[in-house]
């Protein structure tokens, strides 16, 4: 998958995570569904050990109240394509 397509998908998924702030009371309930789903989606977008670790981090971030502002998918994209100097080995795993 094209890295910019992954970025766009990540931004959309981060935006979905922000929805819980828009609906007081009900919003935090939505995290019960969104937290495991976002963790699973992270492991599908980024393969291998880094994807699994990011999936756990995403799950915890979405499950804990008040941490939804952290753009985990975008941060993982930055880690993978900007800060990781190993020629993007993550996608080849």
TrEMBL record:
Protein name (record): Uncharacterized protein
Q: Any idea which UniProt keywords this protein has?
A: Membrane, Transmembrane, Transmembrane helix
Transmembrane residues, as ranges?
7-27
Domain of life of the source:
Bacteria
């Amino acid at each position: 998958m094209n890295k910019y397509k992954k970025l766009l998908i990540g931004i959309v998924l981060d935006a979905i995570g922000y929805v819980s702030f828009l609906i007081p009371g009900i919003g935090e309930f939505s995290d019960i569904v969104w937290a495991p789903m976002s963790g699973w989606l992270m492991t599908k977008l980024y393969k291998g050990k880094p994807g699994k670790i990011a999936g756990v981090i995403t799950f915890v971030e979405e499950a804990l109240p008040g941490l939804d502002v952290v753009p985990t998918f975008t941060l993982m994209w930055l880690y993978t394509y900007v800060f990781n100097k190993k020629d993007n080995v993550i996608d080849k795993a």
